[in-house]
Every structure is written in C-alpha cells, then in structure tokens.
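User: Reviewer 2 asked us to show a designed sequence for the structure in our supplementary figure. I'm pasting the structure tokens here. Could you produce the per-position amino acids so we can include them in the response letter?
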C-alpha cells in the first residue's frame, strides 16, 4: 500500500502538479494573511472603543477559527511534502546499500 501511495504522490508532483500545489499554497497563504489582518483590525477597534461589541466578538471568533484551519492545513501540507521527500530519499539510500552489498 505504501509503494502505491508513493508512486501516486510522485506522479502528482511531476509536471504541472508541483506548480498547482505551489499556487494553491500561495493562495491559502494569501487568504490566511488577510484573515489575520482582519483579526488585528477587530482587536484594534475593540481596544479603541474600550467596549466589547457582541458583533465584533462573533466576527473575531469566526476569523480565528478560519485562521486556525488555514494555518493547520498549510502546516499539514508542508509536513506531508517533507515526509514524502524523506521517505523517497530513504528508499533511494536503501537501494544503493543493497547494490553495494551485491557488489561485495
């Protein structure tokens, strides 16, 4: 099962797959930045007025949940990409070690 998954991820990352993944990641990062900016504006407005507006409180909670989801998704995507790279390198090194053992 692991080899099938590795082949599938390798195939996806070839050609335009890598470009699409980077574009999606950049878009998510842009949206993540916009959400964080919105959160900072709501907090600034609350600090200036000194009174917590219920509408702002609900908006702030929603924006924080969105930012958490975006950040977690970006983190998981990055970790999956790195893990794939390390597993691929591990397979390559194992093959080289096996070839060296056969030569001896």
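Assistant: Here is a per-position design you can include in the supplement:
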């Amino acid at each position: 099962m692991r080899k099938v998954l590795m082949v599938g991820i390798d195939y996806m990352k070839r050609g335009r797959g890598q470009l699409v993944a980077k574009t999606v990641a950049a878009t998510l990062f842009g949206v993540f930045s916009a959400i964080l900016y919105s959160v900072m504006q709501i907090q600034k407005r609350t600090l200036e007025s000194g009174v917590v507006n219920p509408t702002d409180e609900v908006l702030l909670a929603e924006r924080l949940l969105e930012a958490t989801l975006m950040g977690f998704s970006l983190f998981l995507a990055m970790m999956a990409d790195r893990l794939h790279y390390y597993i691929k390198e591990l397979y390559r090194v194992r093959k080289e070690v096996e070839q060296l053992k056969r030569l001896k």
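For the response letter, you might also mention the following. The CA atoms of residues 25 and 102 lie 43 Å apart. The first helix runs from residue 2 to 13.
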